[in-house]
Automatic annotation (TrEMBL):
The chain crosses the membrane at residues 7-27, 33-52, 59-78, 84-100, 121-141. Residues 388-592 form the Histidine kinase domain. Residues 190-242, 324-377 form the PAC domain. Keywords: Kinase, Membrane, Phosphoprotein, Transferase, Transmembrane, Transmembrane helix. Residues 114-185, 243-280 form the PAS domain. One of its GO terms (molecular function) is protein histidine kinase activity. It is an enzyme of class 2 (transferase). This is histidine kinase. Its EC number is 2.7.13.3. The keyword Lipid metabolism does not apply. InterPro entries: HATPase_C_sf, HATPase_dom, His_kinase_dom, KdpD_TM, PAC, PAS, PAS-assoc_C, PAS-like_dom_sf. It holds the Pfam family DUF4118. It catalyses: ATP + protein L-histidine = ADP + protein N-phospho-L-histidine.
Amino acid sequence: MAPLPETIRTFIVGILIGISIVLTYYFHAVLSVGAVFSHFFYIPIILAALWWGRRGISVAFFLGGLVLISHFLLRTDVGTVNDYGRAVMFVVVAIVIAWLSERLKRQQKDTERERDRAQGYLDVAAVLLVVINADQTIGLVNRRGCELLGYREDELVGKNWFDVAIPERNREDARQVFARMISGAATTSPTDEIVIVTKDGDERTLIWKEAVLRDAGGRITGVLGSGKDITERIRAQEALQNREAQLRTIVENLNEGLGVFDLDGHPLQWNRAARESFGLFGFESAPGNVSEFDSLFVFTTTDGTVLPVEEWPLSRVLRGEQIRDVEVRTRRIGTDRQRVFNYGGTLVRGAGGSPFMAVVTFTDITDRKEAEEALLAANEVANLYLDIMVHDINNANAIALGYSEILAEDLEGTNREMIQKVRSAVSQSIEIIQNVSTIRRLRSLTPPLRPVDLDAVIRAEIRQHRETDIRYDGRPVTVLADDLLPEVFTNLVGNSIKFGDPDVTVAIRVEDQDGEVLVSVEDTGPGIPDDVKPALFSRFRKGKSSKSGKGLGLYIVRMLVTRYGGSIRVEDRVPGATEEGAAFRFTLKKAAREEPETPAIPEARPPM
């Protein structure tokens, strides 16, 4: 059942009170009922007041007092018009009081509704809003203020603002500012930022605004403060400033020169190494305008070709190129001062992808280039001497072989054996010269790998040893290598023949292996001891046989196989039986295309 409207309840209470008063007079004055009994009629007045609420109780007690007073003042004769008039007056007074109470209650509800609406507006605000009363207590605080300070609203309202929210070190100064505003000496806070402390002890920085509050009479009653939390922004700014300081320190202390330019090519910043580089050209400070460079410097390639301005490293970067390891010789016009720099650079782009500046780095490599040029010149001289020596030694060896061959035809017995040893020594000298020439080619600039017909290389090597039993299954395949690939088979097959018995058999096998080719060169010779195998491919490491050379052949083989991206190992031909012969196995990478560049040779011997 829905409760009665407040106006109807008030009217009913007034009627009941009036009836109670009339009945009290009637029973007491007209019917001469005892005064004590007639007072029981006050009970409806009290019940009606309880039903009406707190205001009804107050009105009941008020009217009851009037009844008592009127009872003692009542005349003893039969009730008169004055008595009934007094009773009617009580009813009228009750109704008037009830009406006034209802009006006040409605006004109170309107006031509460406006207060709740204002509080709602304050709670929606994204900033802290607080009303600080003249006695420094918190009169009102919005939801954002409670969240920021870490308290509930009931924990803040009525508490001293400065004791709760202001750090102790700032508390006295803040109170003095507040006192000046309350006294009217100041209307705003002298600072735009304040620091507050939360319930957890964390300090937050706010952009702070204050304004005095006045009542209807113009008297200052408090201060309204509003603050926006900028703590994270300040911390981010401090972190950014720290990172910028660190970056400036790093850039300034780089050994590499660095220049920052706007998109028109004008210098924005030079670091220490860059300024020192300009000092090498006789400048006390770096040029401040890019237009000066064309009249101050000549840029050339390392071979002396003059570069136009549009091909300068900075110009290329401003066009959008990302340059790296660009070597440029720089000479100051009108002087003999020149340096060689290695340049790099790129455009720096913002979050949207648009460039906003260019960065160019440069390293002075003058000393290194001079050392490289000196070394190159020395190598050229050494190669000249080596070419002359190889040419002369080869000529001498050829003459020695020729004469020894003639002598061998006329000699017999011990003398013939001695000539054969001479021929062997000369052949060994020729082999050494050939190995040295191969190593020199390996040490020179490495050419790019290209497809090579492995089958043709193997067959060409077999043709060089027709007197030896060499067996090959003849599988055509193209690998990545260069012109030195035959040296691998020359050394491996040559070693098998040299260290094997006169009836030694050599087998060459080729197998596919996941994008690679596994090549095996096996022989039936004396084999290789296990203690020799680990260092067999090292430089100048010879075998234990009296026929061992200078230890360069297998070293060259390993260098070539590694150069081609493969690996090599030595094993027993028959696992566990060293004396049954050796097996050299190495891998080569297969070429992407299978067209051989060298024609294959169809002739081959059957496999072993």
